[in-house]
Amino acid sequence: MQTLRMKSNRIFKNEKGLTLIELLAVIVLLGIIAAIAVPSIGGVIENSKKNADVESISLLKDTAVRYLYDVDPDGNGKDTSNADITGFTFNATTGEGTLLVSALVNSGYLREAPKQQSGSTGRGEPYASIDVEYSTLKGWVATGVNSADPADD
Description:
Layout (H helix, E strand, L loop, with lengths): L1 H13 L5 H52 L16 E4 L4 E5 H6 L22 E7 L3 E8 L7
Antiparallel strand pairs: 1-2, 2-3, 3-4
């Protein structure tokens, strides 16, 4: 038993752990790596939000054009039964109009209104309307998307 104790004491005396300096060096290196990585991750997140907004705007424009071709194929601002289109204001003289995103949701063309992901104003708010125009040569064309309700301007 005595010999076993002596052997174990000898083994523990020869083992060495990390010194405080080595531990601090590792912590400093981890801090430097974190200082480099965190800003680049933040940039990736912001870029992905901007890309999501670009895709949302493209989706809204395409959906508005498809909706208008379905309900107003001749571009007079009225539906196929010659009634006003809910959520759509149209100036027949200029061929320009504004379609509310809520009209697309209510008609089943969208499940819900996409929300703005980036920018300093309107972040988290749903897009409100799509600007469109009609010409006999081009048909319906979406020209822009508004993130604020036009009535608020």
